[in-house]
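Need tokens for this chain, all 135 residues.
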Amino acid sequence: MKAKKSIITLILFFIIVIGVFVWYKIKFKPVKYKKAKVEFTAESFYNEIETYYLQGNLAEEKKYLDKVIRVEGVVTSVDALSNHLVLNNYTFCSFNLSSDLKSINIEDNIIIKGKYVGYSSLFKQLNLNECTLVE
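Here are the structure tokens for all 135 residues:
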């Protein structure tokens, strides 16, 4: 009876450990390997989010928060030292590695993928973190 209880406890322990491991791998997978939930041009995404803010409809904006979004636009600013760039003056993209930015020039048309973290009403910009270039 005691051996049976120990085996059941051990099996439950392994099921829990495997479940936590799988959840962690899915939840914290780098953006580079995640599929984008939606795709926008930098300008259309900005217009949509700004409209939500002007109308006071912040619940609509929340459907994009912490989601991976694919954005296409023209580079208007690049700062390889601080690992960020700006698309169409509206979309601020933070990269984890500056090496991703070395080949990018102002006025390049690029596609990036990143996690949407919110709208800055002070700077009138959308903010994306963990950005990567889409090839």
